[in-house]
UniProtKB/TrEMBL annotation:
Pfam families: PGM_PMM_I (PF02878), PGM_PMM_II (PF02879), PGM_PMM_III (PF02880), PGM_PMM_IV (PF00408)
Alpha-D-phosphohexomutase C-terminal domain: residues covered: 374-447
Name of this chain's protein: Phosphomannomutase/phosphoglucomutase
UniProt cross-references to Gene3D superfamilies, sorted A to Z: Alpha-D-Glucose-1,6-Bisphosphate, subunit A, domain 3 (3.40.120.10), Alpha-D-phosphohexomutase, C-terminal domain (3.30.310.50)
Residue stretches in coiled coil: none
Source organism of the structure: Streptomyces thermolineatus
Entry annotated with the keyword Cell inner membrane: no
Cofactor: Mg(2+)
Source species taxonomy: Bacteria, Bacillati, Actinomycetota, Actinomycetes, Kitasatosporales
Amino acid sequence: MPDLSQIVKAYDVRGVVPDQWDESLAELFGAAFVQVTGASAIVTGHDMRPSSPGLSRAFARGAASRGADVTEIGLCSTDQLYFASGRFGMPGAMFTASHNPAQYNGIKMCRAGAAPVGQDTGLAEIRELVEGWAGTGLPPTDAAPGSITSRDTLADYAAHLRGLVDLTASRPLKVVVDAGNGMGGHTVPTVLAGLPVDLVPMYFELDGTFPNHEANPLDPKNITDLQAEVRRTGADIGLAFDGDADRCFVVDERGEPVSPSAITALVAARELAKHPGGTVIHNCITSWSVPEVVKENGGTPVRTRVGHSFIKAEMARTGAVFGGEHSAHYYFRDFWNADTGMLAALHVLAALGEQDGPLSQLVAQYDRYAASGEINSTVDDQAGRAAAVRAAYAGRDDVELDELDGLTVTGDGWWFNLRASNTEPLLRLNVEARDGATVAAVRDEVLAIVRA
């Protein structure tokens, strides 16, 4: 019997193929997905990993066996699958393990209109059905089998994005894009075609073995090639996408990384210009710059927990126009509240192209504080070490504590957040302050307790 507790995560299915899951399990997931969502039609897509086509087709067979018609859009980015779910009004399933190494694969599932499926919104029920069927096989059904058909959505996806951001007034820009052998190599050429962009491609060949570097731009070592190429070519900007191309990271004309918080603030200002008085969602470890910029542009900032299910739920609840996270996930009301790094990239290109200064100068107004970045500590007792940090600050009258997500402590001109990883024995620390010396002091004080 497969151990589904190892592969069914909070928001998706993810594990090593074929050791932890395979096409026979994918077929059961397809059948369970249809049963839980009650869908008569679904859409599926997959990334470039060697195991993805087979897993995706097995899922489609399982879904069709329960009576659902399946539209396969084939190779796509995760946000392209969200586009199809939104445009067609169908639940969807994307086969990808995002930035994980080559031997992994997974399923990101959504309801019609790209609404997320997580533990509390159907994934627990899907897991329960698959566990029951894994030993006995699929039960018989009276439903007539559904059809499986193919449809290409890349051009429609690109047209939708270009319709949301006007680049006609942009000056010509030289743009280096590192696709990391992931799905950005499939989507970027079509999205940027015809725009005033001199595209310098890096690692656009689709290769799920990731021969050049991991498709995880959150790790600084994976953007060193992009930084060097931006400097070598004298480019205006560099963009790096993760494996399923739903996240986008930015480097400026000097090859220096631009904080995702600064990108969140920049895009928020542009979205508020389109939707005056709108609400913008940000998680509890984005920079103070984000709510400041939102307020300065007449919007209402709403702070939430880390994670796409929380962001998307708050966007739906508040009718927010935009949401951003420190991890370079960017969410748009104009994109069914789903995350799309490509749309954020178009906003940055438009903002850069509408003025004459370099990107470093443009983003400086949105990057106002010093930050530590995320610092991970491996600990045996997450709860105990976190409690020790809380105890150290709880008695002080010069700080405020909140526990919206982990522990956030705010002092005079600084704050830190300490959160436990859901999947690893780690505590994650983020510190921000008005200056680097304060960041270092607060960081060292907290880590001394965490690592004691």
